[in-house]
């Protein structure tokens, strides 16, 4: 099959017509200003399955946080019993950049997390609260904002 082109009218390329008319098809568009999005200060991670699998998944996450370029601490508030100095050593985590804090009770864990976040001494504060209601979220976000830190809550369903 052969195609014939008409020689009487030359075919213009797609933009030749626009250029010939001195119109810039996208020249009048103004760049959009991105709305200033609120920085997310609180993240949650839920791990479920066998405890061995949860431990295997948790180790690289904490290792990445512990090796962050930020010179501040990675602070762990009320970590589960398996997460000890010995476990950190076995997993190859930099224990010199990690602080483990054990509160006296559940309410103390929340208070301790907020103090650690607001102090600005930690780049990330990891907590293990089962559920976070709106008020708790607000407190953690406000404290994290104050200390320019991240709050990470991990729920283990192991």
Report on the architecture of this protein.
By secondary structure, the chain is an alpha/beta fold. The protein has a single domain, classed as P-loop containing nucleotide triphosphate hydrolases (Rossmann fold), CATH 3.40.50.300. Helices cover 35% and strands 19% of the residues. It contains five helices and five strands. It has a five-stranded parallel beta sheet, with helices on both faces. Strand 2, helix 3 and strand 3 form a beta-alpha-beta unit. Helix 4 runs parallel beside helix 5. The protein starts with 15 loop residues before the first helix and ends with a strand.
Give helix and strand order, one letter per element, not per position.
Answer: HEHEHEHEHE
Q: Which ranges are low-confidence, i.e. pLDDT below 50, for 5 or more consecutive residues?
A: 23-27, 29-38
Biggest sheet: strand arrangement: 1-5-4-2-3
**General form:** globular
The beta-strand count equals: 5
Mind describing the biggest β-sheet?
Answer: 5 strands, parallel
Query: If you average the pLDDT, what whole number results?
Result: 81
Q: How many structural domains can be distinguished in the coordinates?
A: 1
Task: Give the % helix.
Answer: 25-40%
Strand % is 15-25%
Structural class: alpha/beta
Number of helices: 5
What is the CA–CA distance across the termini? 68 Å
> What's the CATH H-level homologous superfamily?
P-loop containing nucleotide triphosphate hydrolases
Which radius of gyration do the C-alpha atoms yield? 27 Å
Keywords: Cell cycle, Cell division
Pfam families: SulA
InterPro entries: Cell_div_suppressor_SulA, P-loop_NTPase
Protein name: Cell division protein
């Amino acid at each position: 099959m052969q195609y014939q082109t008409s020689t009487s009218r030359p075919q213009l390329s797609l933009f030749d017509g626009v250029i010939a008319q001195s119109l810039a098809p996208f020249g009048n568009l103004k760049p959009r200003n991105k709305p200033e999005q609120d920085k997310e200060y609180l993240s949650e991670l839920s791990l479920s399955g066998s405890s061995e699998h949860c431990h295997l998944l948790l180790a690289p996450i904490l290792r990445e946080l512990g090796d962050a370029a930020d010179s501040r601490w990675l602070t762990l508030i009320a970590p589960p019993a398996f997460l000890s100095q010995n476990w950190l050593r076995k997993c190859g985590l930099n224990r010199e950049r990690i602080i483990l804090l054990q509160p006296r009770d559940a309410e103390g864990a929340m208070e301790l997390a907020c103090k650690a976040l607001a102090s600005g001494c930690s780049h990330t504060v990891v907590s293990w609260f089962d559920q976070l209601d709106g008020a708790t979220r607000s407190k953690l976000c406000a404290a994290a904002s104050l200390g320019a830190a991240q709050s990470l809550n991990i729920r283990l369903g192991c």
